[in-house]
Amino acid sequence: MAIPTVILKTEVLRKTFKVGFWGKQVTALEGLNLEVRQGEVFGFLGPNGAGKTTTLKMLMGLIYPTSGKAWLFGKDIGNAEAKARLGFLPESPYFYDYLTGIEFLQFYGHLFGLRGGSLHRRIDELLDLVGMTHARDLQLRKFSKGMLQRIGIAQALINDPELVVLDEPMSGLDPIGRKEIRDLILRLKETGKTIFFSSHILHDAELLCDRVSILVKGRLVAMGRISDLIGAASMQSIEAVVEGLGSDGLAQVRPLTIKVTVHGERALLVLNGQEQVDPILDKIRAAKAKLISLTPQNSSLEDLFMREVREQGGRA
Amino acid sequence: MKARQLHSKSQNLITWLLLSLLLCMTIMLQYQLQQREGHVQKLEQLRLLPRGEVLKPALLGYHHLGADIIWLKIIQVLGERIVGEKDYEWLYHALDVATTLDTKYIYAYDAGATVLAELAGRVDLSNQLLEKGLEPNPGSWRIPFVLGFNHFFHLGDHLRAADYMARAARVPGFPPAGPPPYVARLATRLYAQGQNPEVAIEFLEGMLQQTHEDWVRDQLERRKKRVTVERDLQTIERSVQRYIEKNGRNPLSLLDLVVNGVLTRMPIEPYGGEYRLNSKTGEVTSSTHAERMRVYRSSDAMAKKGDIE
Amino acid sequence: MIARIVSISLNTFRENLREKLLYNLLIFALLMIGSSILLSRLTLGDYHRLILDLGLASINIFGVLIAIFVGIGLVSKEIDKKTIYTIISKPVPRYAFLVGKYLGLVITLMANTVVMIIGLLVVLHVMDVPITVLLFKSLSLIFVELMVITAVALVFSTFTSSTLSAIFTLAIYVIGHLSADLKTFGEKMDTVGRGILSALYYIMPNLERFNLKGHVINHVDLSADDLLLTFAYGASYTVMLLVLASMIFQRRDFQ
Ligand SMILES: Nc1ncnc2c1ncn2[C@@H]1O[C@H](COP(=O)(O)OP(=O)(O)OP(=O)(O)O)[C@@H](O)[C@H]1O
Ligand SMILES: [Mg+2]
């Protein structure tokens, strides 16, 4: 199998900000090493304030790294050639709101030196792609947040880029909107584009990404395929809901569970794996209680995420 | 990667070079323009000033600042020294505007009037400016003082000069704000002795103490030297008179006067020349200045052809 | 690259046209110019002078106000509103963005000045005041002054907030008109003071050079050489400021 080309790479990328009157140093990103390969959808995950936007802004040449290096298409960041092969959607985008949808896209097309009929065709295509054809002559000030997000994505695609960088493309969208953006990303992937997006909506990432990385407080805590990451942390659990266990019964089952939560007559028992199921069922029968449900819980990206964040938080 | 760094470094250097180059060019052009503009434009600026009464409301309460700025411009013109006859009209106009904007701008009255009288020879304009300042500035002794000065030196009217000096002396307060003691003394002497070189010298010394502008000081110093010559000549003439009364003949030399005791001390000619005595006529002259200053002669009989004021 | 700069400047022009302040100032300027007709009825004697005086002064002052108050937000607003993110992430060098913004405002100023000049010419025509070449020399230098002031506002706009830029630019405008006096002032000081003030004199823009209003009113011509030299001075100063602004802008983080 051919080794896939790395089109985005960072090497111990660091960024500190000076804040306040005295210029106190705040580290937003600490020595990030990252690789994004051609053709993949890469999720850049992390809780609020993890340093995702900071990283993307450095990659786009909007802020300068304090130390470390980064390359896009094998070129230093800020390189015009690399930028020409790139599309970027900023976090909660702000645009010139006095332009209409079509003028807006025209302006960005001109920045790539596109004009004339080919630009027109491209704009029509894009408006269709993001489902905004109806808003082509509407001023951006009259757009809803979801519409802005879409026209923003169209703007990022105007130059038919090889790499699309999206900062929180799904934030602020309703479930339908999120699904549409997800479909859009998958469609872009089909046309051979590489997509690098940041998010803290894990469900979306789980559905979309080939690989993810998790950033917490400026540090990379995990990177790889979702299945590998979850597998490595494999932790299957089983939940049982029982009614009428009574205090005696509870005392009996407690040693076999990880966690017990009682709601009046009912109790939620979390079991640590398959082996505990039979002994627990015996105890329930013995206590003449009623088993309501028994569900195996697949460990999700969310669990992984929560655990990493908790561990990092504990360490900090 | 290295190459890229080098590239951005050299780019950096180029922008710095470009910036310095442009700075040099700008400064050169600025200098060039300054060379060409010279004196004319500054005077023009004064000429362009609207009348004070018009300007004052337009300045929206910043008329004091306006007066300061105009004064700054006036100073520039004065510093040039090569002001022509007609240009003093504009100078007067500018001074008039400045003192209308700020009627208590004592310094503008004072220095402006001195310049008009001393350098421009326009006593009329000088007095006009000062008279305008008298009323709004009853607390200033300088304005009547300079008026007295003008009347004494330029108009030869020692009585009116004495009046102004008395007015200056009456201004309440003590030095440095109030009038110094010599003002009252001068007033008295003006009444008593009139156009006397001694009085003139004291006057000039008083004036010199208050004046800081170099070009005006030069002028005053020159005047003082000139009056000193006149004073010395008069002193010597009086000794010659006494000598004749005593000895019934003309003295043979100036030394004769000292030896005889009618002259206490041989005065030194301030221009570095010497005083000469014509033993036949008894006439005394300075080797540097042939003419005499008529204003200080006690009688018209002593006046001669070629006297100056 | 030129095509990109043009796109940015046209977009800036378009943005400026939405500025309400612009229209308020323009209307006010036209009213001032027009009011000279009424005033000239009131004054006896030289009303030519009054009309020219008021007209040139209005064009100048309102041009400067537009240059400053639109110029200060030119770049800082883009950074505040984060609209710059999508532009800098495109293959547009930062200097090109800056030059584009600058030219955009220059186009705006040009349009405004043309409107005001037309207003003045109409008034002059109606009142039978002769229209001279000197008048156009003066108007062209007023425009050069506006270009310099816009560049000053742009420099401040690249590193401070709008309010501070406005204050700094106004300060430079005032100093620029007094810089000749600064030098004279310095000549009366000790060596250090003189050094500092004459350095200031050469570094600060000497905006009095662009002031021919007095010439027009008093019919004092300016030679073609002097005019050319003054143009060269304004151009060189402007380009210098643009390079300086680019250097500052190149180094900064957009946070
Ligand atoms: N301009 C700045 N000045 C000072 N600190 C900053 C600046 N920008 C970001 N930070 C800090 O850097 C850290 C990372 O911020 P960043 O915006 O990159 O987080 P994020 O991962 O994008 O978060 P979110 O999910 O909320 O968008 C935060 O602690 C933030 O306070
Ligand atoms: Mg963010």
List the helices and strands and how they pair.
The complex is a heterotrimer of chains A (316), B (309) and C (255).
Chain A: E1 6-19, E2 24-37, E3 41-45, H1 52-59, E4 67-72, E5 75-76, H2 80-84, E6 86-89, H3 101-111, H4 116-129, H5 145-157, E7 163-167, H6 175-190, E8 194-199, H7 202-208, E9 211-216, E10 219-225, H8 226-232, E11 237-243, H9 246-253, E12 257-263, E13 266-271, H10 277-286, E14 290-297, H11 301-315
Parallel strand pairs in A: 3-8, 3-9, 6-7, 7-8
Antiparallel strand pairs in A: 1-2, 1-4, 4-5, 9-10, 11-13, 11-14, 12-13
Helix pairs in contact in A: 4-5
Chain B: H1 2-37, H2 40-47, H3 52-58, H4 63-80, H5 87-101, H6 106-118, H7 123-134, H8 142-153, H9 158-170, H10 181-193, H11 197-210, H12 214-247, H13 254-260, E1 275-278, E2 283-286
Antiparallel strand pairs in B: 1-2
Helix pairs in contact in B: 2-4, 3-5, 4-5, 5-6, 5-7, 6-7, 6-8, 7-8, 8-9, 8-11, 9-10, 10-11, 11-12
Chain C: H1 2-17, H2 20-42, H3 47-71, H4 73-80, H5 84-88, H6 94-126, H7 133-157, H8 162-187, H9 191-203, H10 213-218, H11 224-251
Helix pairs in contact in C: 1-6, 2-3, 2-6, 3-6, 3-7, 6-7, 6-11, 7-8, 7-11, 8-9
The complex binds adenosine-5'-triphosphate and magnesium ion.
Adenosine-5'-triphosphate binds next to β1, β2 and α1 of chain A.
Task: Characterise this structure.
The complex is a heterotrimer of chains A (316), B (309) and C (255). Chain A has helices at 52-59, 80-84, 101-111, 116-129, 145-157, 175-190, 202-208, 226-232, 246-253, 277-286, 301-315, and strands at residues 6-19, 24-37, 41-45, 67-72, 75-76, 86-89, 163-167, 194-199, 211-216, 219-225, 237-243, 257-263, 266-271, 290-297. Chain A has 316 residues and is of the alpha/beta class. Chain A folds into 2 domains: 6-230, 3-Layer(aba) Sandwich (Rossmann fold); 235-298, ACT-like. Chain A, domain 2 (Alpha-Beta Plaits, 2-Layer Sandwich). In chain A, strands 6-7-8-3-9-10 form a 6-stranded mixed sheet, with helices on both faces. Chain A has a 4-stranded antiparallel sheet with strand order 2-1-4-5. Chain A has a 4-stranded antiparallel sheet with strand order 12-13-11-14, with helices on one face. The longest helix of chain A has 16 residues, at 175-190. Chain B folds into 2 domains: 2-219, Serine Threonine Protein Phosphatase 5, Tetratricopeptide repeat; 230-307, no CATH class. Chain B has 13 helices and 2 strands. Chain B has a two-stranded antiparallel ribbon with strand order 1-2. In chain B, strand 1 and strand 2 form a beta hairpin. In chain B, helix 2 (40-47) packs antiparallel against helix 4. The relative contact order of chain B is 0.06. Chain C has one domain (2-251). Chain C has helices at residues 2-17, 20-42, 47-71, 73-80, 84-88, 94-126, 133-157, 162-187, 191-203, 213-218, 224-251. The model of chain C has no long low-confidence stretch (mean pLDDT 88). Classes of the chains: A alpha/beta (316), B mainly alpha (309), C mainly alpha (255). Chains in contact: A-C, B-C. The B-C interface holds B 15-16, 18-19, 22-23, 25-27, 29-33, 36, 42, 44-45, 47-48, 69, 72-73, 75-76, 79 and C 178, 180-181, 184-185, 187, 202-203, 206, 209, 214-215, 217-218, 220, 225-226, 229-230, 232-233, 236-237, 239-240, 243-244, 246-247, 250. Bound molecules: adenosine-5'-triphosphate and magnesium ion. Adenosine-5'-triphosphate (ATP) is lined by residues 17, 19, 26, 28, 46, 48-54, 91, 200 of chain A.
